[in-house]
């Protein structure tokens, strides 16, 4: 299934499942190399797509049906409700996640895995036909499974959030109020942005199909469910101060694609504020979570170990990756079933709740996407102009995790950040491309001659070291744009020749810049920011828009002289 966010996306999923098949989501924004791998690995027989996307799909052996233009053919089929013949242990979808070898891996999920997820959590949530959900996340991310079926299984309403609105907290807040959304699913990072919008004073009505920003009375949320990455509870304080902790109820859920979206559940309250622990609660009733040592023996209460998940949520394994499946999906020492080896560190607390303590390997989660840093580093190693590199997650601004790539060029080669970015753009989805790259003469080493990740300079340090080239804004337009950039990027100052993307910008931050610029009546678009990446260039565009060249009225003249 390769479609944009649209009604066709849901029609495609329902049609595939009704026909007894399984769907493989292909995000049209993925680079060609990743799409080629997924098509070859999954060996799909049929691609449902939209006409405008056909040319962007790599060469393949599958048949194609365009869901938006081939209705003349489609309507010739029977209109009766077909018997799908699907059984609980039949495959329902394959979602590809990041892999440390440089290749993504497809997770195989059955119908039974999804159905039992809602059956097991129903006593907590009581989803019903009056609920309004948002499809906020990409359908190539398994949080979307929870969003889609949470609405459809209970006869609720599903609001498909346009991509640009999902990346603009201001517009998304308006949508929540306008559509009277009751169930909101967010990564903590996305929700923090929403809180900042909610705290700000109301603005005049915006364009883009929505009215002015909603007020507290317009909000109809009854549940906000977090997932996709670790939650820092203190970031929720402004929300609790305004709304309390009951209406809506905020819930933290931990989960993994290999164990069907969610594994644990914990309602949050104001009493949690002040804690630095990432408490993820108790297992869903039909799951079991074990904290084991290296010998697969349970560790004592309060002692750190690796988290293993057992129960009805554990999926089949990986497509075409037998060895990796056997390594991660192991026989349980406690029952005839299997355990999934998560690679996450945790411990049980005295009240029977789990505290998440991070990863034991080089894998991270940012904005809900699971990323193997090794996959990015493996691809950087393929670039002939790079001698060595390392990718890390930095959190120089509290609550704002970002990927930073440190690169050492080959001798006598001049390497630009734009070249690195374009190389990765052809191989990785955007969420896996580091926000910032830092070019170094050498990587710092520790006493064991290993890369000393703690000694890597922050991008802000590098930015300050280049202050000799700093040119301050000198016009009102440049000053306003510089202030917007500094606020969005979380840096102290921005020069008119600084490059937005070299300062740590990306498309998500770009959309935030454009939204703030439009509030100042600067009519800019994201495509203009992608083309004009400095304050000076953008200010010139704005100046031309606000002060167009005067037109002159001239008298008609003859092409041939009277003489």
TrEMBL record:
Molecular function terms from GO: phosphopantetheine binding
Keywords recorded for this protein, A-Z: Phosphopantetheine, Phosphoprotein
Domain of life of the native organism: Bacteria
Gene source species: Planktothrix rubescens No108
Organism lineage: Bacteria, Bacillati, Cyanobacteriota, Cyanophyceae, Oscillatoriophycideae
All residue ranges annotated as the Carrier domain in the record: 472-546
Family statement drawn from the similarity comment of this UniProt entry: Belongs to the ATP-dependent AMP-binding enzyme family.
SUPFAM superfamilies linked to this entry: Acetyl-CoA synthetase-like (SSF56801), ACP-like (SSF47336)
Protein name as it appears in the record: Peptide synthetase
The keyword Phosphoprotein is annotated on this UniProt entry: yes
PROSITE patterns reported in the protein's UniProt record: AMP_BINDING, CARRIER, PHOSPHOPANTETHEINE
Keyword check for Phosphoprotein: yes
An example Gene Ontology CC term for this record: cytosol
